[in-house]
Amino acid sequence: MLQSLLIANRGEIACRIIRMARALGIRTIAVHSDADAHARHVRLADEAVHIGASSPPESYLRGDRIIAAALDRGAEAIHPGYGFLSENGDFAQGVIDAGLIWIGPEPASIRAMGRKDAAKRLMQDAGVPVTPGYLGEDQSPARLHAAAAAIGWPVLIKAVAGGGGKGMRRVDDAEQFAAALEACRREAASAFGDDRVLLEKYIRSPRHIEVQLFGDRHGNLVHLFERDCSIQRRHQKIIEEAPAPGMDEATRGWLCDTAVRAGRAVEYVGAGTVEFIADASDGLRANRIWFMEMNTRLQVEHPVTEAITGVDLVEWQIRVASGEPLPMAQDGLSIRGHAIEARLCAEDPADGFRPSVGPLDHFVVPPTARIDSGVEQGDASSRFYDPMLAKIIAHAASREQAIQALAATCGGIEVWPVRTNAGLLHRLLRHPRFARGPVDTGFVEAAGDMLALSSVQRVAMLAQAAIGLVRPDDTGRGAPRSDASGDVWTARTGFRLNAADDPFVFVDGGGGLERVSLPPGWQRRAVTALPVPGGIVVFDEGEALFARTDAGARAVGGSVGDGVIVAPMPGRITAVGVAMGARVTSGQMLVTLEAMKMEQALIAPFDGVVAALGVVVGAQVDEGAMLVRIDKEG
Ligand code: ADP
Ligand code: ADP
Ligand code: MG
Prior knowledge:
This protein is an alpha+beta fold. The protein is 27% helix and 30% strand. It is built from 17 helices and 38 strands. Strand 29 (535-540) and strand 30 (543-548) form a beta hairpin. Helix 4 (89-97) runs antiparallel to helix 5.
């Protein structure tokens, strides 16, 4: 067994590897960039080495510095995690040449699978069915165009060196081809330094099914069944599960044997994944599943396989790298229950999944599932790296129970001020179509608005924010919160509420002041309301909604049938926005009051006319003084 290990990665995977190595009594050495000087993986490791500036090419992609750090700290082995240098054959060779143990397959296996076209040719020779398409060396636009037409539209243009869902273009007809090819080439050249492409038939109703492989240096190679990773956005996985729903035993047997054949063709050692694409328009059938690519590393979604097999894949990686044989033979492996994983990402689904960067002032994931996290509360989401913060994995006897458990956990996630996809994950997991069974890779896009935050939930959250801002006393009248500290809480709002049948307040939840009806009896839901500077954040089913309490946006209201606006506190009138008899609409500013060095707007509670006006600009008013009365018209 190894004595020491350097982890050439960051984030959740570095933390996960450190945790396992620790359990095996191995000394762990982290590497980090400037931005990660205090990152969780650095805190968890026994030692940490700074390897450069924040951008990956200056640190996590600097193989030379990483190897030097390993030698300097006396590390015996290097684990590359996934991403970064994990599928770089030259780096693997460099590690070996430096006399260190490489926790991964032979550099030759990495290289054989590194280019999608070469890998597919190799697989064809090994008798593995590959996605129909064009793999030719002739990269002239004319030749590619002719090949695409021969395959039949739609086709998918893929960068041969592509990965992470980048460098891919679907083309629906001949007219689009030239432009799509050019765009794909440009993206491939800048992202991968290689503008060569291959063409594939675009599979309709595609499901992404992959098989986990594991080999050792004693000639053993086993599979650990399949995973279904069809829930994707922009060709990137967000939810993965194992086993694949709707997979019958015969098809599973064929698929897993095929994957093992693929692994044997490259004499695979260590953990690897063979990715297949299935045309699932008519269920999963062996003659409609094709090899797509092989990832010669540990996969992001490996925990679902761990859950259903009981195998710790990182432990196996370390044992195999130490020269031990696989701890288990094929016939010792079986599937138990169902597991499902969700990727929690720092991004805003409502804004095109734009990465969200900043401090994680509030970061809570209920400990009701396995959580593989790269961060804790107080850490940050960095603009330099992948936005994935954590993975959440649920395991249960049935698919239905696993989905339910994961949905419950995702629904309890609270993150602020960084935006996350937790609400989307929760809605995906609760979607009846997903619950019913397999979906294809177009599901997230097709479901579209159905997966967006509903206006019903948003309004319910606004109401909860309003209750958090102004808590009723026993008589049901509006009263300021007295149990919280800070200006926001001690400042009295202009809130006014009689025993009305339709109590409401004005709240700014990001889109300007909105009139929000309060739930009957001011019912609080089981949501967290977190006081933050300038307002309050309400968390509900993974979503976070911020309501402002600063001047001009404070909750101010009245009640139907009572248009009397009184001064909520002693102060000075700084503006009068209406005249006697003027028509006003609900939410319109009537007067502003300066009190306690803050200005607040008092707003019309409903449409009507100004029936009484008790103040002029500059007037000093006492608390409770009548300022304006609005009467309903007619
Ligand atoms: P990457 O290296 O970026 O992971 P893959 O070749 O594995 O690229 O493809 C990523 C995803 O793109 C797949 O999971 C699938 O959703 C989609 N995809 C790939 N090939 C096809 C195809 N021929 N038809 C339809 N969708 C495809
Ligand atoms: P998999 O095929 O294992 O699901 P992907 O094809 O999504 O993985 O590629 C790995 C992804 O992980 C890439 O998008 C890469 O940017 C990202 N990545 C690499 N290293 C890390 C890390 N340490 N933490 C989070 N994400 C990472
Ligand atoms: Mg892939």
